[in-house]
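Section 5: illustrative case.
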C-alpha cells in the first residue's frame, strides 16, 4: 500500500511541476512514480517466489 501512496504523491508532484513550469519538480514526480512502481514489482516478485517455494515444499510431502 505504501507504493500506491508514493505513486500518487509522485503524480501530484509531476502535475504541479508541469503546471508551474518547474522541470525539476516534474522530473522528481516521474522519479517518485518510477520508484513506487519498482517497489510494487519487487513485492510482487517476492510473493511469487514465496508461492513457488511453498508449492515445491508441498510437493515433497
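Designed sequence:
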Amino acid at each position: 500500500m505504501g507504493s500506491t501512496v508514493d505513486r500518487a504523491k509522485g503524480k501530484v508532484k509531476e502535475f504541479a511541476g508541469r503546471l508551474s513550469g518547474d522541470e525539476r519538480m516534474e522530473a522528481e514526480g516521474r522519479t517518485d512514480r518510477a520508484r513506487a512502481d519498482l517497489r510494487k514489482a519487487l513485492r510482487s516478485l517476492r510473493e511469487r517466489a514465496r508461492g513457488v517455494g511453498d508449492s515445491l515444499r508441498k510437493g515433497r510431502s
